[in-house]
């Protein structure tokens, strides 16, 4: 029965995806996107990390299954692809989308991740969370710690799958930060861009079809994930690449699947059509120097720096360096400052600068060195004299005791 139901679902999905191409596409406008029904949305350039457009990007909203982006990246960073993940009763009994895991079933983490991201398996999410974190609450702590590390400060996760909880929330901008970070992982990219995957489970054999409609309806899509609950409504993260540029759109709180696809299309088009991104500096570039012991030390970048500007912009992208060199000594790789590229009146791209070598303590001037050396010698002489006097006194006391004559029976 499951196989018949799965076949019907797959056919229905494909028919829906194909027929949706007849829906009028949102045309890129020369103006900022308008008429959005989304509760919140953001467009991000994935190289520079700059926000190209936002509509309530910091509004608190329920993420639904786009939560699984965080679950997947934590699993990739903390687990091994060939780890065997065991399904608990809690995982088996999850509601909504599933890959029909049985209690006690063991599957490789890699297969579980495809079930998680393509079929949005809620059971796979809980099994993965328990495998990586030991329990769902412990895994949620890991999710929240990672979110904080990435700067997603308005996010609080409770579940690994996004099934509704009033205390499980995020923002469009926070999800853009999390997803952009995840897309830097090559295995994550591979999973979320996969259209089909043959699932071999204990109770379920099927060919999974990625339920992200943008993979089927927008040229150059590289990921990422969709979601839905009654409380969250439709949510979506979509990334796409054209030439050397890659853009991401996050849309949350839309009522209809067709609407969220159209609004996401409009936002991606806007990001590509109206902006350009260029590399401002290369990893390893020296953008300033500082002097220690009479030697100049370069302050270098550890990564490429990109800047995104409107295509009509003529602003000069000159760097402004702010050194904050720590007191010597300090090791190679220490932060020694920051560089800022002012792209226009509002946009600033910045990056840290580092020392490419160990820096030793400064050498004192000759006069100070002589004074300090004399002080050390004088102190040593005084300590030696005190010790010699103490030993001399002790020897005298022992001599006196040995010459005393005792009378008695």
Key descriptive features of the protein:
single chain; 25% strand; 2 domains; alpha+beta; Beta-lactamase; five-stranded antiparallel sheet
For the largest beta sheet, what order do the strands appear in spatially? 2-1-9-8-7
Which fold name is given in CATH as the topology of the largest domain? Answer: Beta-lactamase
- CATH homologous superfamily designation of the largest domain: DD-peptidase/beta-lactamase superfamily
Tell how many strands the DSSP assignment holds. 16
Label the structural class: alpha+beta
Which strand-content bin applies to the residues? 15-25%
Number of helices: 11
Which residues sit in consecutive blocks of at least 5 with pLDDT less than 50? 1-29, 404-409
Q: How many domains comprise the coordinates?
A: 2
Please give the CATH class of the largest domain.
Alpha Beta
Order of helices and strands: HEEHEHEHHHHHEEHEEEHEEEEEEEH
CATH architecture of the largest domain: 3-Layer(aba) Sandwich
The radius of gyration is 32 Å
| Shape annotation | flat
Straight-line N-to-C gap = 115 Å
Overall average pLDDT? 87
* Largest sheet descriptor: 5 strands, antiparallel
Fraction of residues in helix: 25-40%
Protein name: serine-type D-Ala-D-Ala carboxypeptidase
Transmembrane segments: 374-392
Function: Removes C-terminal D-alanyl residues from sugar-peptide cell wall precursors.
Catalytic activity: Preferential cleavage: (Ac)2-L-Lys-D-Ala-|-D-Ala. Also transpeptidation of peptidyl-alanyl moieties that are N-acyl substituents of D-alanine
